[in-house]
TrEMBL record:
It holds the Pfam family Methyltransf_11. Residues 22-122 form the Methyltransferase type domain. GO terms for molecular function: S-adenosylmethionine-dependent methyltransferase activity. This is Methyltransferase domain-containing protein. InterPro entries: Methyltransf_11, SAM-dependent_MTases_sf.
Length: 233
């Protein structure tokens, strides 16, 4: 996913330009820190105290120049209008957040408002068109059958959450003024790997295979996650 995001940034913005990045639901700050290291000015928004503490600990260990480029805001992603002016950011990330929100439309509209004209919106969501694949691969035939007619599922943390269908999100992005520019699949070959599985010795080859499949039909359509990139008109 990071490689996909870098590809979109490189294709949209001048080389060396320092971008204003907003990461909504930044978690422990993995992507926010990566982009700050790349020279961008990054603001991370997170409401979970444990995640904020982890992000701050990670940031504290960075050189001063990187610490100065990253700001952490405690808050809900649905309240971006409270913290920031419209059009304040060149890139807005919202990765792994929509599945936890029952009604995501207000959040999506708020994210689009944060983008400057030509800005990039990067979403990572659970793929509602492929929910049957995981239970089917584990031999849970009843679960696979039930997954065809819903966008609700139980994740590995035991939480009841929701997925998004590509066609539905494509229409929503067009409606909020950030129409879909391109999309990728994420976790195609590796989704069934057990938690805590050791990192394979041929990691670079694995990543190359995932990256190739993530941009290739029909593989990307059955990915566990979708990475959608919209552009503010």
């Amino acid at each position: 996913m990071a490689r996909q995001l870098d590809e979109q940034i490189a294709g949209r913005f001048a080389v060396g330009r320092r971008l204003r990045v907003l990461d909504v639901g930044m978690g422990q700050g993995t992507q926010a820190l990566r982009l700050a290291r790349a020279g961008h000015q990054v603001t991370g928004v997170e409401r979970d105290a444990t995640m904020i503490a982890a992000a701050r600990d990670a940031l504290a260990g960075q050189p001063e120049g990187i610490r100065e480029r990253m700001r952490i805001v405690e808050g809900d992603g649905r309240d971006t209008g409270v913290h920031f002016l419209p059009g304040s950011f060149d890139v807005v990330l919202c990765h792994g957040v929509l599945m936890y929100i029952e009604e995501p439309d207000p959040l999506l509209a708020g994210l689009a408002r944060m983008l400057a004209p030509g800005g990039l919106l990067s979403l990572v969501v659970r793929n509602g068109d492929a929910l049957a694949l995981r239970p089917g691969q584990h031999g849970d035939w009843a679960g696979a059958l039930a997954s065809f007619d819903t966008v609700n599922y139980r994740n590995r943390l035991g939480l009841d959450v929701r997925a998004d269908r590509l066609a539905t999100l494509t229409a929503k992005l067009a409606g909020i003024g950030a129409p879909l520019h391109t999309w990728y699949g994420v976790r195609i070959f590796t989704d069934t790997a057990p938690d805590g599985a050791p990192v394979p010795a041929d990691l670079d080859t694995l990543l190359a295979a995932e990256e190739r499949a993530g941009r290739t039909d029909p593989y990307r359509a059955i990915a566990a996650l979708l990475h959608l990139c919209g552009v503010r008109g």
